[in-house]
C-alpha cells in the first residue's frame, strides 16, 4: 500500500505563515513583472515543499480474519423444556456453517446467569468476550437465546460496534405455562397476629382458574380456587418468632414449560411484642435476685414479679389497713390473664394455701395448651408443701424422695444433655471436671418423664426438661444457681444456662431438640440437623426445578449433624428430613430468570434491526426440526438478512508487517530542482532586461 506523508521541518503554524508570505510575494511578482515571475513562484514553492518534507510511504500489510461473536445463552430460562438440546444443535450447526466461510473466525461466548438477581446479561458477556478485539475487526454478532435478555442497551450507540446483530431464538411460539406472582408480601409480622399476602396467578394456554395451596413452614393450612390474572389475598397467622416461611403453590398445567415458577415463597420474620414472664417467689432468699436480674436485663421480656412475704398462716393481729403489702392478685393472674404469659416461674414456692386447687388446674390447662412452667426447687420441694403434692403434679417431671443433699458438688452435663441445645457446649463443660464453681445443695427426686440434662451430687437429677402436649415444663432441683452469679469458686455460666432454659421454655426456634436449618453463602448451602438421636439420616435436597438429591450428614458436635453442598441453580431450595422441612434461597427466593419464561422475538428486535440484523426462531410450533439460516458475507448495503440467510460485514483489517519511507524533498533530487528553478528564473529575467 503506497501513500504520501508529510513531516514538516518547522512547526505547522510557521509553515503556513511562510506559505502565506510566499504566495503574497508570488502574486506581487506576477503583477509587477508579468509571466516571467512564475519561475520565482516555482522556486518559492519548491522551498515550501522542502520545508514540508514529503515522503513516499509503502506499507506491507497482511490481512487478518474477521471476528464473528456467537453468544450462547446458558441462563436458567434456557434450561426449560427442550431449549438445552435446541441450543446445542444450533451451536453445532453454526460451527459447521462457519467452517465454509473464508477469512472469518467465530468466537463462541458462554453466558450464565448474572450475579445476584441480574437475570440474563448477554451484552455484558459479549463485551467481556471481545475485550481484546478492535471494534473494526468485528464482522457480526449472533445470539443464541430464548429472547429473555435483561441488559439490552436503550440505543445502538451503546453497543460499541457497528456490525450487524442477529438473534436465533430457541423455544416455541406455542409454549404454555402457569405461574404465581406476588403483589404484596410482608417482611415482618407480630407473633399471634395475621398478615395479608396478595398474589396473582398468571397463565398462557391455561383454563382460566386454578387451585392455590398455601403452606406455612411446610404444613398445608389453606386451599382455594382463584381466577387467573385476578389478584387474590391470603391471611396468614404468624405462629412463632424467627422466620415463618409461607408458600403459595398453584397447580400445574399439563405439559407446561416449567413448574419452578408455580410456587412463590414469602419468608416473614416473626417478632414478639414482649415475652411476658410471671415470676412467683415463695419467700425471700439469696437466689431470688438472680432470676430477677436475668429477666430484667432482657429488653424483650416484660417481667411481673411477686414475692410471698406474708403467707395466710402468718397472723399477728396487725389490721389490714395498716399493712403496706400488696395483696397477691391470684384470681387476676391465674384465672383471668393466665394466657397472657409466655412463662410462669415458681421460685422456691411452697403450697401455703395462697393458690386454691382450681388455679393449679388452670396452670395445667395453660401448659397443655402451649404455655410453659419452670419450677426452681429448694428445700420446700421435699416438704409437705411441695408443688408435687398439688394438682400441678401431673405435669411436674419428678417426684421428691425426701432427700436434701447439702454438700459441695460440680454440676455435670449428662449424655442426654450433651445433645440437648439447652446444655450442649455450655461454657466450661469442655473440661472434666467442668471449669465452673460448686453448688452446695440438691433436692433428691425420682424422675418419671422428661430428659435429665444435668446431674449433681451422687448423680442425682439436677435439671429435667419435659414436653407436655403443646407446652413445656422444666424442673431445676437446686436453689444454688445464684452461687455462679456471685462468683463463688470462680462462678459459672449462669447467664447462658438460665437464659437458654427460659428461651427453650418459650419455644425459641434455635433451641429446639429436633430442628433442621439451612443457610446459604454464595452458591454453597450449609445444612444443620439438630437431633437427640445418636445418628441422623440423610436429608433430601430439592432444587427450584424439582430435582431431588440425597445429602449425607456428618456429626460435628453431639446431637448436631452438618453438611455442605454446592448448587448452581438460583432460587428456593427445599430441605427435608422426615417431618422437618426448611428452605434456603440461592440468590433471590423468586428469581428474575423465572419471572418471564416465555421465549420471545420482541425484546431484541429494535436493537437488532437498528444494526441491520434480524430476529428469527429456529423452531416453529409443532415442528421438532431445527432451522439455522445460511451465513453470507455482505460487502455493501444496510441490510444483512434475507429469507433463509443472515449476513456479516467483512472488514479490511490487516496487520502491518513493514514500512518503507522515500523522502521527496531532500537529497540530490531536491537540490537539482531548487537550483534549476533559481537558474531558470535568473536567465529568463536577464534576457528580458537585455
TrEMBL record:
Domain of life, per lineage: Bacteria
Keyword Protease: no
Ranges that cross the membrane: 12-31, 38-57, 661-683
UniProt keywords, alphabetically: Membrane, Transmembrane, Transmembrane helix
Gene3D superfamilies to which the protein is assigned, alphabetical: 3.40.50.880
Record's keyword annotation contains Secreted: no
InterPro entries: Class_I_gatase-like
Protein name: Membrane protein
Amino acid at each position: 500500500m503506497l501513500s504520501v506523508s508529510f513531516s514538516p521541518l518547522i512547526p505547522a503554524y510557521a509553515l503556513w505563515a511562510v506559505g502565506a508570505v510566499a504566495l503574497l510575494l508570488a502574486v506581487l511578482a506576477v503583477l509587477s513583472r508579468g509571466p516571467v515571475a512564475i519561475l520565482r513562484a516555482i522556486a518559492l514553492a519548491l522551498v515550501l515543499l522542502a520545508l514540508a518534507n514529503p515522503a513516499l510511504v509503502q506499507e506491507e500489510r497482511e490481512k487478518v480474519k474477521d471476528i464473528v461473536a456467537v453468544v450462547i445463552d446458558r441462563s436458567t430460562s434456557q434450561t426449560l423444556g427442550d431449549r438445552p438440546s435446541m441450543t446445542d444443535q444450533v451451536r453445532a450447526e453454526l460451527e459447521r456453517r462457519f467452517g465454509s466461510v473464508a477469512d472469518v473466525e467465530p468466537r463462541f461466548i458462554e453466558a450464565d446467569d448474572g450475579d445476584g438477581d441480574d437475570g440474563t446479561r448477554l451484552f455484558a458477556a459479549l463485551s467481556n468476550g471481545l475485550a481484546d478485539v478492535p471494534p473494526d475487526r468485528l464482522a457480526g454478532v449472533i445470539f443464541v437465546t430464548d429472547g429473555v435478555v435483561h441488559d439490552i442497551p436503550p440505543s445502538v450507540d451503546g453497543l460499541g460496534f457497528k456490525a450487524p446483530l442477529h438473534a436465533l431464538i430457541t423455544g416455541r411460539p406455542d409454549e404454555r405455562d402457569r405461574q404465581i406472582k406476588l403483589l404484596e408480601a410482608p417482611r415482618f409480622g407480630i407473633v399471634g397476629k395475621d398478615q395479608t399476602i396478595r398474589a396473582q396467578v398468571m397463565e398462557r394456554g391455561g383454563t382460566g382458574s386454578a387451585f392455590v395451596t398455601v403452606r406455612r413452614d411446610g404444613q398445608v393450612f389453606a386451599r382455594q380456587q382463584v381466577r387467573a390474572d385476578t389478584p387474590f389475598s391470603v391471611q396468614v397467622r404468624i405462629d412463632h418468632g424467627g422466620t415463618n416461611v409461607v408458600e403459595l403453590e398453584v397447580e400445574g398445567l399439563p405439559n407446561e414449560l416449567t413448574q419452578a415458577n408455580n410456587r412463590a415463597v414469602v419468608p416473614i420474620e416473626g417478632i414478639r411484642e414482649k415475652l411476658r414472664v410471671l415470676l412467683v417467689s415463695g419467700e425471700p432468699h439469696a437466689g431470688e435476685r438472680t432470676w430477677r436480674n436475668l429477666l430484667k436485663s432482657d429488653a424483650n421480656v416484660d417481667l411481673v414479679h411477686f414475692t410471698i412475704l406474708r403467707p395466710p398462716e402468718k397472723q399477728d393481729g396487725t389490721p389490714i389497713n395498716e399493712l403496706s403489702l400488696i395483696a397477691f392478685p391470684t384470681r387476676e393472674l391465674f384465672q383471668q390473664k393466665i394466657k397472657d404469659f409466655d412463662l410462669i416461674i415458681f421460685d422456691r414456692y411452697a403450697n401455703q394455701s395462697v393458690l386454691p386447687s382450681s388455679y393449679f388446674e388452670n396452670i395445667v390447662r395453660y401448659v397443655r395448651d402451649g404455655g410453659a412452667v419452670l419450677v426452681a426447687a429448694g428445700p420446700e420441694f421435699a416438704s409437705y408443701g411441695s408443688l408435687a403434692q398439688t394438682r400441678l403434679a401431673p405435669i411436674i417431671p419428678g417426684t421428691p424422695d425426701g432427700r436434701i443433699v447439702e454438700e459441695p458438688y460440680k454440676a455435670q452435663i449428662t449424655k442426654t444433655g450433651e445433645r440437648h441445645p439447652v446444655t450442649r457446649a455450655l461454657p466450661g463443660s469442655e473440661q472434666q471436671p467442668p471449669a465452673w464453681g460448686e453448688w452446695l445443695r440438691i433436692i433428691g427426686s425420682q424422675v418419671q418423664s422428661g430428659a435429665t440434662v444435668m446431674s449433681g451430687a451422687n448423680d442425682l437429677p439436677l435439671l429435667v426438661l419435659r414436653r407436655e402436649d403443646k407446652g413445656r415444663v422444666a424442673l431445676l432441683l437446686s436453689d444454688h444457681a445464684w452461687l455462679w452469679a456471685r462468683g463463688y469458686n470462680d462462678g459459672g455460666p449462669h447467664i447462658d444456662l438460665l437464659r437458654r432454659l427460659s428461651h427453650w421454655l418459650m419455644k425459641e426456634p434455635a433451641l429446639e431438640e429436633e430442628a433442621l436449618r439451612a443457610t446459604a453463602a454464595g452458591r454453597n448451602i450449609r445444612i444443620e440437623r439438630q437431633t437427640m438421636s445418636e445418628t441422623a439420616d440423610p436429608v433430601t435436597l430439592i432444587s427450584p426445578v424439582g430435582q431431588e438429591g440425597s445429602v449425607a450428614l456428618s456429626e460435628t458436635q453431639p446431637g448436631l449433624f452438618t453438611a455442605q453442598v454446592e448448587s448452581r441453580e438460583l432460587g428456593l431450595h427445599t430441605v427435608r428430613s422426615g417431618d422437618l422441612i426448611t428452605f434456603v434461597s440461592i440468590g433471590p427466593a423468586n428469581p428474575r430468570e423465572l419471572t418471564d419464561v416465555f421465549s420471545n422475538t420482541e425484546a431484541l428486535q429494535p436493537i437488532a434491526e437498528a444494526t441491520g440484523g434480524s430476529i428469527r426462531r429456529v423452531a416453529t410450533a409443532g415442528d421438532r426440526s431445527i432451522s439455522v439460516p445460511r451465513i453470507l458475507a455482505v460487502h455493501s448495503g444496510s441490510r444483512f438478512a434475507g429469507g433463509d440467510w443472515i449476513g456479516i460485514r467483512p472488514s479490511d483489517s490487516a496487520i502491518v508487517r513493514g514500512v518503507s519511507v522515500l523522502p521527496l524533498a531532500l537529497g540530490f533530487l531536491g537540490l537539482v530542482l531548487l537550483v534549476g528553478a533559481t537558474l531558470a528564473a535568473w536567465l529568463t529575467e536577464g534576457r528580458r532586461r537585455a
